[in-house]
Amino acid sequence: MIIIGEKISVIAKKVREAMDARDPKPIQDLAMEQWKAGAHFIDVNIGPAEDKGEDLMKWMVEIIQEKVQAPLCLDTTNASALEAGLKVHNNEWGKALINSTSNDPERFGMLELAAKYESEIIALTVGKGGLPADSEERCGIAAEIMGRAMEFGVPLENIYLDPLILQVCTTQDQAMHSMKAIQDFQDLNDPPMKTVVGLSNISNGVPRNMRSLIDKTYLVLLMYAGLTAAIANPLDKDLVDVMKTTDLFLNKSLYADSYLDM
Amino acid sequence: MSFVVPKESFGGKVLAVDFGKEGSKLTIGGETTLPFLAFEGEVPNRPVVAYEIQDCAPEDWPETVQSIYKDVSGDPVSWAKYCQETLGAKAIALRLVSTHPDRGDRSAEAAAQTIKDVLAAINIPLIILGSNHIEKDATVLVAAAEAASGYNCIIGKAQEGNYKTIVAAALAHNHKLIAMSELDINLAKQLNILITQMGFDKEKLITDPMCSALGYGLEYTYSVMERIRLAGLAQNDPTMQPPIVGDVGMYVWKVKETVASGNDVPEWGELEERSISWETVTATSMMLSGSNLLIMRHPRAVENVEKTIDELM
Amino acid sequence: MALTGVQIFKLLPKTNCKKCGFPTCLAFAMKLAQGGIELSACPDVSDEAKSALGEASAPPIRSFALGTGATAAKMGGENVMFRHEKKFVNPSAIAVNIKDNDANLAATAEAVAGSEIDRVGQKLRIDAISIECASGDSATYEAAAKTVAEKAPGAAIILNCRDAAVIEAAAKAIADRKPLLYAATDETAEAMAAIAKANGLPLVASAKGLDALSALTEKIKGLGVEDIVLESGAESAKEIIEHNTQIRRAALKKSFKPLGYPIINSVIRDDSILETSIASVAIAKYSSIVVISSVEKWKNLVLFSQRQNLYTDPQVPMQVEQKIYEIGEPDKKAPLMITTNFSLTYFIVSGEIENSKVPSRLAVMDCEGLSVLTAWAAGKFTAAKIANFVNESGMADMVEVKELILPGQVAILSGALEDKLEGWKITIGPREANAIPTFLKGRE
Questions:
Q1: Nearest-CA residue of chain C relative to B40?
Q2: Which residue did the predictor score with more confidence, A10 or B294?
Q3: What pLDDT was estimated at residue A46?
Q4: Is A86 helix (H, G, I), strand (E, B) or coil?
Q5: Whole-number mean pLDDT of chain B?
Q6: How much is the pLDDT for A25?
Q7: Which residues make beta-bridge pairs with C361?
Q8: Closest-CA distance of chain C to residue B304, Å
Q9: CA–CA min distance C432, chain A (Å)
Q10: Residue bearing the bigger pLDDT, C37 or B47
């Protein structure tokens, strides 16, 4: 199970202030903590970043990779900021991951960047306006994105399909449809397509003390459905333990009394 | 291939709730299937249509419906009697509009007196509605519940922000209660849970998931009501089994289609028929999606909804 | 059950040869699942796949058009019982019935032709005219059909006549308009099917009750007619809702092919408002064609609105038009608020402004129907885009003091927005709409 550490996000006040002040320390610390906790990618979410997004993304990539030997997941809707980040991304520890393209024409350009910089890319299976109703519609959108990716020269192996997880508290029936989509996505190519979710979306809007429980329980179901990667909080030890335990049941890791310490 | 009637049988049922005094009681709900599907379950009670009246002159109602009541609407007692005697109302919904801080700010005591006067003048069941001001309703509806003690009224609406005192008052004076949330099935369930956790019997509860007018979000209410019904019937969710109220009139009689004259908007046709059928079709749609109780304003709309119910039962 | 795109994809050659016109086998499979193309477009499909895909790839409710051309009404093709599960696909067609010997025939046809109105960005109209054969005379009926065809060139035509000998000439005369033959009964099935087949027309199967109706559609299909519409003999609202529910359930849940067709219901009543109410029952409950007795503008508006509401896609947020809405009668000192164009957001925010009784302006910005926070996260409600909207909409000229009230949920944008909007003061409003009345009154 690939973990994309989600903590470096513009939505967090501490991170936003560090970004504004160009103060590297808080950001580097967060990256380091997540990496040590087992994150395979560090997500760098700078938001829409309309002003000086290029500078910001370049700076973020440089200061993080100065400390952490991991590939980054570059997360913004601003394509030129994204490109600025890709340009300086150190691929020594793995390809960068773009977050994200979709079926919205505004996001097509992301595929071009993925081809140009040979990076991996998350493909959100949503179109312009409106959400997919079920797995079938998500697969239909995935098929369109995959066709487009081939035209742009992005190998399908570099794509992570994201069914878009919606909050259970208002769109409950979608939890099941997204799970089904994780299963169905794998059938869309041989070798199977890779899949990813933004896990904590499932618990958006529920009381804070219940979020971890909801995230963990849903993660187990998604893993059983064959999920490749999750954008999640690696600092949530319970969550990581649940992940490791589920991997045992799925026969993806070997049991030992101290398996949680590994 | 021969045809077999595809019936569904549900584990749950809609709770039957009665209101009004012994001898003039009405019952709503009680069905064991989706609205009007009597071929597969019981549909024991007709939806009830209540006439809406107010405790002050309805100056903000459009002319088409205001003019019907022009001789009686200055006084809630005359208005109530007119509905009962002339229009043949089966129930009355008295909205205490003038208690709203912006609409006269009448006191809870004054409202209580109005309720006593109206109750003394009619012999059909009464629904008592606040002015939809969260804080004020918390005091007004408490006084109202006391004033109507013994009459087995429906009082409302209890909302997330004020349910505690209103629930306690309904409990103390043995009334039925409308629990209202804003177009969100999850909030509707949550409120019903909170209310029953206070010891209020779910069999005295009525859910108001918030109405909307035709053309103005009707589809949201329609789907929320359908989902509430399915949760109560198919998932046997006890918190989703109370009957549903559609507070139709107040949402309909403010939209442009019930106000603009045929001269102003020629492509919309005559105002009279347009506005009356606007209320009729909104109410019919609410019944199809699950409403057991409708609160309406125009007599011709009520008449056509009753005829529609005649055909549906 | 119809196969999904993924299931079909597994049966295809997976060579991505593009001979079908699609970039990948997967894209072709997805299109096939939607019923947009035929399997035969793939030259390399195996016999095994062909037989597996045959019946199963057909949708559970047959889909075809009523009428011809751009204004033809698509029918059938539905997938669900409830609109919250997934969009109802093809809105009910509304048809007005008129007798062939009615003096107002031409005038009614013209009224139908002119019935189009614009509602929330959609052009809506009476879709069809049902010509009832009251004369019993073939020549009169044919003439009526020609008149309607000429006077209402965009409308679909329904030939409401049960006598094969009378309907034939009319059917032939306007065959290019693909009229719906209404209807064949068990007694007339052979003769009606022959006319339908000879002229390539859809045919209504009319029987009392669903047992008899199932047998009749099987018979008609056996006679070579594929495009069938169901009439079950439902008259009261109760029968309409019960029959239509049973038909839809049988087709969707039991894959019962004999009832896998669109439904026609007549809802004609003496009272026009009652008729409107019963028509709304048919529209809500699975009718594909609703036959009414008159075209009145108010009635059209009501039925169009209800149909539009119930047939909106629950996954696509309904949008309101981007503009500055005036609530109450705002003067130049009135507060100016901004929000996104998700219709529910608009209804709730404007409702709370109304409740406050403070005359105000509400600037509604096109964010593809997303709510405030979602639009911000998706990059649609950003400082630059808001600034652009403010400048292009000419808001500055509507107010005396340049102050814009921003939803509290996007307070984060206020700094950037002040930088981009010179001379404007940005005020942070409440996070939730229900706090708007207190907020607005507190400003006075």
A1: C242
A2: B294
A3: 93
A4: helix
A5: 96
A6: 96
A7: C326, C336
A8: 5
A9: 14
A10: B47
First to last CA, chain C: 62
Three-state DSSP at C424 gives coil
User: Would you state the CATH architecture of domain C5-57?
Assistant: Orthogonal Bundle (1.10)
Q: What are the boundaries of each domain within chain A? A: 2-250
Closest CB to A128 among C5, C315, C368:
C368
* Superfamily in which the C64-310 domain is placed by CATH: Dihydropteroate synthase-like (3.20.20.20)
**Domain annotation covers residue B202:** yes
Ranges of each domain in chain C = 5-57, 64-310, 323-443
Quick check: B102 and C253 CB within 8 A? no
pLDDT of residue C37 exceeding 90: no
pLDDT in tens, B205-219: 999 999 999 998 899
What is the interface size between B and C, counted as CB pairs within 8 Å?
A: 161
Are residues C309 and B215, on separate chains, in Cβ contact within 8 Å?
A: yes
The listed CATH number (3.30.530.20, 3.40.50.1100, 3.20.20.20, 3.40.1790.10) that belongs to domain A2-250: 3.20.20.20
Residue A56 token pair: 């910001």
Burial of B264 (0-12, 13-18, 19+ CB in 10 A): exposed
What is the pLDDT at residue C19?
86
B102, B187, B214, B219: which to substitute to probe chain C, counting the most C Cβ within 10 Å?
A: B219
Query: Is the sign of the CA dihedral C173, C176, C180, C186 positive or negative?
Result: positive
Which residues on A lie below 8 Å from C30 (Cβ)? 139-140, 143-144
Distance from CA of B180 to the nearest CA of C (A): 14
How many independent structural domains does chain B possess? 1
Is A188 touching C (CB cutoff 8 A)?
A: yes
Identify the domain containing residue B78 by its residue range. Answer: 23-312
C-alpha–C-alpha distance, residues A160 and A180, integer Å: 16
Asked if A86 and A108 count as a contact pair (C-beta separation under 8 A), the reply is no
- Tens-place pLDDT, residues B76-104: 999 999 999 999 999 999 999 999 988 89
Q: What is the pLDDT of residue C36?
A: 67
C211 contacts in B (CB within 8 Å)? 2-3
What's the pLDDT score for residue B85?
97
Residue B16 included in any domain: no
Q: Tell me, yes or no, if B263 comes closer than 8 A to chain C by beta carbon.
A: no
Chain B, window 13-52: residues with a beta carbon less than 8 angstroms from a chain C beta carbon: 36-39
Q: Which of B46, B50, B47, B44 is nearest to B90 (CA)?
A: B50
Among B residues 117-176, those touching chain C with beta carbons less than 8 Å apart? none
In a domain, B124, yes or no: yes
* pLDDT at position C35: 67
In this structure, the strands spanning B17-19 and B26-28 are: antiparallel
Chain centroid offset of residue C143 CA: 32
CA distance to partner chain C, nearest, from residue B134 (Å): 10
pLDDT at residue C1 tops 60: no
Q: How confident is the model at residue C195 (pLDDT cuts 50, 70, 90)?
A: very high
Q: At residue A206, what are phi and psi to the nearest 5 degrees?
A: -95, 160
Whether chain B has a CB inside 8 Å of the CB on A205: the answer is no
Domain assignment present for residue B5? The answer is no
Q: For residues B264 and B285, which has the higher predicted lDDT (pLDDT)?
A: B285
CA of C5, closest CA in chain A: separation in Å? 7
Q: Which residues pair with A230 in a beta bridge?
A: A3, A197
**Cβ distance of C254 and B6 shorter than 8 Å:** yes
Task: Evaluate whether the domain defined by C323-443 bears CATH number 3.40.50.11600.
Answer: yes
Q: At B300, which CATH number?
A: 3.20.20.20
